[in-house]
Amino acid sequence: MFSGSIVALITPFNSSGEVDYVSLKKLVDFHVEAGSDGLVAVGTTGESATLTVEEHVKVVHKIVEFAAGRIPIIAGTGANATHESVTFSRLLNNSGIVGCLSVTPYYNKPTQEGLYQHYKAIAEVSDVPQILYNVPGRTAVDLLPETVARLSKIENIVALKDATGDLERVKIHRELCGEDFILLSGDDSTGLDFVQLGGHGVISVTNNIAAADMAKMFKLAADGQWDEAKIINERLMPLHKNLFIESSPIAVKWAAKKLGLIEDGTLRLPLTELSESAQPIVSQALTDSGVY
């Protein structure tokens, strides 16, 4: 259901800070043409925390409209208040999305039982498959494998995006959750290794600007052509690392503007433009990876 090279899509803004729907359509077309396997609309890389509920829902609907059935759309529905995630899930029922991606509640630092109840409440109001998202480096809470296993028993919780970078968890999750549960990497640097160990794909930041290479790499991996896939991955490693030189999506939006994929690289406060000291590093990464 969810596999291959999926994009953690940025949300373009114009210089006034409003959503740039012209650039958004351009991005969707770019990823369709590049062969990406799916788009995550308004996930955390899409600056979901700074969009209003109305903007969030509208952007998802517009991406579904722009995609026109050519590429699957997953909606970001995460929040640190369960009622807000529930609201997103309800509002996006019957919207044309194929799934929801919900990050663990940030700042609150809930217990494992709290995390279980949070995701259970979301799943109960949604009519689409649910993807758990664990990224403790950004949320200060870790969704432990045992809790993932409990959640995997809920019918429409079908997948996990794991951004811990801990490759040992692939085997643990597989043993605890069974063969049918979908495992996706959220860590670009280790994403290919994750898949080789038994994962199904990656939800990637790098994919925003190196979409064709990423799609090719994971198609090669699916065909068992690991040596060829690793050559591409090694070439893209400067991007995997340096797109996180400052808090994402700062660097990737700067890179997308430099490549002409979006009109403006504006972010919403409290995020600010890529620093002058970091710009040459990201620029060199674009060159070294063969993207620019």
UniProtKB/TrEMBL annotation:
The record marks 44, 107 as: Part of a proton relay during catalysis. Keywords: Amino-acid biosynthesis, Cytoplasm, Diaminopimelate biosynthesis, Lyase, Lysine biosynthesis, Schiff base. It is an enzyme of class 4 (lyase). Its EC number is 4.3.3.7. Pathway: Amino-acid biosynthesis; L-lysine biosynthesis via DAP pathway; (S)-tetrahydrodipicolinate from L-aspartate: step 3/4. SUPFAM superfamilies: Aldolase. Gene3D superfamilies: Aldolase class I. PROSITE patterns: DHDPS_1, DHDPS_2. Its main location: cytoplasm. It catalyses: L-aspartate 4-semialdehyde + pyruvate = (2S,4S)-4-hydroxy-2,3,4,5-tetrahydrodipicolinate + H2O + H(+). Pyruvate binds at residues 45, 203. The keyword Cytoplasm applies. The active site is at residues 133, 161. InterPro entries: Aldolase_TIM, DapA, DapA-like, Schiff_base-form_aldolases_AS, Schiff_base-form_aldolases_CS. Catalyzes the condensation of (S)-aspartate-beta-semialdehyde [(S)-ASA] and pyruvate to 4-hydroxy-tetrahydrodipicolinate (HTPA). PANTHER family: 4-HYDROXY-2-OXOGLUTARATE ALDOLASE, MITOCHONDRIAL, DIHYDRODIPICOLINATE SYNTHASE. Homotetramer; dimer of dimers. This is 4-hydroxy-tetrahydrodipicolinate synthase. It comes from Vibrio amylolyticus.
